[in-house]
Amino acid sequence: MTTNTTVSPTTPALPEQPRLDFAKTAPKVFRALIGFDAAAREGLDPALVELIQIRASHLNHCAYCLHMHTNDARKAGESEDRLHMVPVWREARHFFTEREQAALALTEAVTLVADTGVPADVHAQAAAQFDETELAQVLALILTINTWNRVALSTGKVAGTDERRR
């Protein structure tokens, strides 16, 4: 009799320690990602940056990035109430500005792009809240956090071990 050892996509088996030190083994790529991240943040409200990163990290089930960005948001003065409402922002819209709601909707659409693409109404809502340059920056930030989530998940990053503190 064979045992099914496949892991469900919604409940991945996570390593207890990192699999690979990406920064050490691919330093040029890592530095390029850091540059991409810094460029994406330029001109955006730091609170909005953290909300986008938190939502994408929720959707991607990235505990490492979620831990990092909720801590960063707290240090920047974000309220616990708003942090708790990010995963259910549609049911708690009054916690978020229209601009933040548009960014969260776009974050969801881009993060889950394989499921539904980026619906025209989601893009229109974001375009109504951000000028073209800001919209490009928001999109770049969403792309960046999705890349970081994938790096953290595929290299086995452990939540609570933020290397930026070294």
Brief characterization of the structure:
With 166 residues, this protein is an all-alpha fold. It has helices spanning 22-25, 27-41, 46-59, 63-75, 80-85, 98-111, 113-116, 120-129, 132-155.
Description:
The protein has 166 residues and is mainly alpha-helical. The protein is built from 9 helices and no strands. The chain has helices at residues 22-25, 27-41, 46-59, 63-75, 80-85, 98-111, 113-116, 120-129, 132-155. Helix 3 (46-59) packs antiparallel against helix 4 (63-75), helix 6 packs antiparallel against helix 8 and helix 6 (98-111) packs across helix 9. The chain is globular, with a radius of gyration of 17 Å. Residues 1-8 have low confidence and may be disordered.
Provide tags for this entry.
166 residues, mainly alpha, disordered N terminus
Strand and helix map with partners:
Blueprint (H helix, E strand, L loop, with lengths): L21 H4 L1 H15 L4 H14 L3 H13 L4 H6 L12 H14 L1 H4 L3 H10 L2 H24 L11
Helix pairs in contact: 2-9, 3-4, 3-6, 3-9, 6-8, 6-9
Low-confidence stretches: 1-8
Order of helices and strands: HHHHHHHHH
Q: What about the largest sheet?
A: none
- SS content category: mainly alpha
Beta strands, count: 0
Work out the strand percent: under 5%
Distance between the termini: 48 Å
- Count up the helices: 9
Which radius of gyration do the C-alpha atoms yield? 17 Å
Please tell me what the overall shape is. Answer: globular
If you average the pLDDT, what whole number results? 89
Portion of residues within helices: 55-70%
